[in-house]
Amino acid sequence: MKISVIGCGYLGAVHAATLASMGHTVVGIDVDPARVAQLAGGRAPFFEPGLDELLRDGRATGRLRFSTAFADAAGAQMHFLCVGTPQSKTSDGADLSYLVSASKSLLPHLSRGDAVVGKSTVPVGTVDKLGRILAARPDVLLGWNPEFLRQGTAVKDTLVPDRLVYGVRGGKEGAFARRSDGTQGAARGVTAVLDAVYEPLLRAGIPRLVCNFATAELIKSASNAFLATKVSFINAMSELCDAAGADVTELSEAMGMDPRIGNRYLHAGLGFGGGCLPKDIRSFRAQAQALEVRSVEDWMGVVDSINLGQRARTAEVAKELCGGSIAGRTVTVLGAAFKPDTDDIRDSPALDVALRLASAGAHVTVTDPKAINNSWMRFPQLRFEASAARALEGAELVLLLTEWAQYRDLSPAAVGQLVRRRTVLDARNVLDAAAWQAEGWTVRGLGTNHAAALTEQISAG
Ligand SMILES: NC(=O)c1ccc[n+]([C@@H]2O[C@H](COP(=O)([O-])OP(=O)(O)OC[C@H]3O[C@@H](n4cnc5c(N)ncnc54)[C@H](O)[C@@H]3O)[C@@H](O)[C@H]2O)c1
Ligand SMILES: O=c1ccn([C@@H]2O[C@H](COP(=O)(O)OP(=O)(O)O[C@H]3O[C@H](CO)[C@@H](O)[C@H](O)[C@H]3O)[C@@H](O)[C@H]2O)c(=O)[nH]1
User: Could you tell me which residue ranges the UDP-glucose/GDP-mannose dehydrogenase C-terminal domain spans (predicted)?
Assistant: First the structure.
């Protein structure tokens, strides 16, 4: 099938490349000429494992191209909207201006029977709003197909998703009810086109759920809200563990063994960041407020404040480890990206903490395997160093803030030779504390103080 993908960022570029790998003929459209030039050259404009290979394959087969011209979307039967929906600059709500603009630009290039299907994460009610823009073309089908991929595993998540969700007008009844006049209704039409797009996935047994627009919108928001809830729950527990002398890693391991709870998203530490969870829970909160559902509004407020509290808490522990003041201290931060295996620094907890320490007077050097280029121009008050070894030289305090494999695997003996003082704050609770302590390191985690206190007691005799 001929498909257009509008917006080629972390979501759209991966979506376009994977659709081409399934055999479709795809054009990716973006307003950013530099991004389009890179993608057209077969190179990903950001670090995402496996994407470069797919882009090169798509280019070689001639099935994948990129353009800044919306006119190039003409002739496609399916148009996926994948533009950003960031947090508004003036409120907690989502900024829908990119979606509105992309829909208006697409409008003149649509043909009778085309399907326009959104994948961006949107507040409930957005599809109806876009429907009013597309009302000028009643012969065009509208649907919503929220995306659940994670950065770092985006290619695999797109090719082997846990489920496909189709939001269609009138929901399941609209999609599958027989019409007395024998015509195919819009809901049925968009379901059939999506089924054709995802045929290889459906054949492989990926479940597909058809629902109405509001349910599709809420499935995505509620899923992210639940993931954020799990992370903030365990982070609140980590604070309780510190206060009570318990160990949160043991607590979460034991809780996670109960299949009703599960161990995923139960890793305590610095908390969540990125271009999705933080802005999506704030948008969810704003939606609940507009719909006057106080329980969800309050809930999201608590999840957000626990999450932001972890950043403040980490900066406070860092100061404590430097004897109460961090001014003038040489500090090395391991990690700038919001999580490992991505170069994305949107709302990065690691950079947030680094900035807090710099503004408290510390000399902060940040290192990251992939995100240095993204970071250094935006944060001139921080020093960036691509080599972890050079970044660690002379450090009086080391903070592990993004748990890249290469930082988890650091040798405490080798790092000990580089630093001035063997003190590490492992804000992701991933280091083998005993191994580091055996090399003379003072190790602090979040919610694992019990272990540190015990070691102090043992070494005190
Ligand atoms: N990043 C993820 O892991 C992920 C996963 C699932 C859902 N989402 C959702 O997908 C959407 C996109 O997220 P992202 O992370 O890819 O954002 P992004 O900022 O990486 O990409 C957005 C792209 O849209 C382009 N764009 C903006 N206005 C445009 C217009 N009028 N026409 C064409 N292109 C335009 C931008 O230039 C940019 O390349 C958001 O709603 C997000 O919440 C993201
Ligand atoms: O136990 C955990 C798990 C995650 N995190 C943090 O949570 C954030 C989000 O991680 P992850 O969900 O892996 O990354 P994203 O790529 O932001 O993906 C989320 O956001 C996407 C955009 O909506 C959705 O599509 C995905 O399903 C959803 O997982 C990161 O900062 C992680 O460090 C923790 O602190 N503890």
Answer: 332-433
pLDDT at 450 over 90: no
Report how far ligand 1's centroid is from the alpha carbon of 39 (Å).
Answer: 15
Ligand 1 pocket, residues with Cβ under 6 angstroms = 6-12, 29-32, 35, 82-85, 98, 101-102, 105, 120-121, 147, 149, 151, 275-276
Average model confidence (pLDDT) across the chain: 95
Res. 118: pLDDT tops 90 = yes
Rounded CA separation 413/373 (Å): 29
Question: Dihedral sign, CA of 116, 121, 124, 129?
Answer: negative
Instruction: Provide ipTM, 2 decimals.
Output: 0.98
The Å distance, Cα 440 to ligand 1 centre, comes to 46
For residue 249, say whether it is annotated as part of any ligand binding site. no
The per-residue pLDDT for range 301-332, each reduced to its tens digit, is 999 999 999 999 999 999 999 999 999 999 99
Cβ density class 297-307: b for 16+ within 10 Å, e for less = bebbbebbebb
* Reported CATH class of domain 228-459: alpha beta
Tokens of 350: 């690691």
Its CATH architecture, for the domain 2-211, is: 3-Layer(aba) Sandwich (3.40)
Write out the residue limits of the CATH 3.40.50.720 domain(s) in the chain: 2-211, 228-459
Q: How far apart are CA 152 and CA 386, in angstroms?
A: 20
Q: Are 283 and 93 in contact (CB under 8 A)?
A: yes
pLDDT in tens, 384-419: 999 999 999 999 999 999 999 999 999 999 999 999
Please check if 172 is assigned to a binding site. Answer: no
